[in-house]
Amino acid sequence: MNAHNVIIRPIISENTYALMENNRYTFEVAKDANKFQIKDAVEEIFNVKVVRVNTLRVKPKIKRVRYVAGKTRSWKKAIVTLREGDTIEIFGTQA
């Protein structure tokens, strides 16, 4: 599996910004990717050293639009811990 097919996008929220201060970055990853593939993909794309990878599956939630009930999509999230001193610049230049 290609590294760019494993890492789909970074997750940007208030919670993930708090994690970034501790060298922990959150990504949406492919559902069938395992921790070793995620580690290799992050190291290849961002040229950093990964210490730990935690993964979890996000379950779909029920949403309603008027009378029709449906579900959001299910996806996989990875929280990657980097070596001390390594950083990933998600927006190019962070202030």
TrEMBL record:
<keyword id="KW-0687">Ribonucleoprotein</keyword>
<comment type="similarity">
    <text>Belongs to the universal ribosomal protein uL23 family.</text>
</comment>
<protein>
    <recommendedName>
        <fullName>Large ribosomal subunit protein uL23</fullName>
    </recommendedName>
</protein>
<comment type="subunit">
    <text>Part of the 50S ribosomal subunit. Contacts protein L29, and trigger factor when it is bound to the ribosome.</text>
</comment>
<dbReference type="InterPro" id="IPR012677">
    <property type="entry name" value="Nucleotide-bd_a/b_plait_sf"/>
</dbReference>
<comment type="function">
    <text>One of the early assembly proteins it binds 23S rRNA. One of the proteins that surrounds the polypeptide exit tunnel on the outside of the ribosome. Forms the main docking site for trigger factor binding to the ribosome.</text>
</comment>
<dbReference type="InterPro" id="IPR013025">
    <property type="entry name" value="Ribosomal_uL23-like"/>
</dbReference>
<keyword id="KW-0689">Ribosomal protein</keyword>
<dbReference type="Pfam" id="PF00276">
    <property type="entry name" value="Ribosomal_L23"/>
</dbReference>
<keyword id="KW-0694">RNA-binding</keyword>
<dbReference type="InterPro" id="IPR012678">
    <property type="entry name" value="Ribosomal_uL23/eL15/eS24_sf"/>
</dbReference>
<keyword id="KW-0699">rRNA-binding</keyword>
<dbReference type="GO" id="GO:0005840">
    <property type="term" value="C:ribosome"/>
</dbReference>
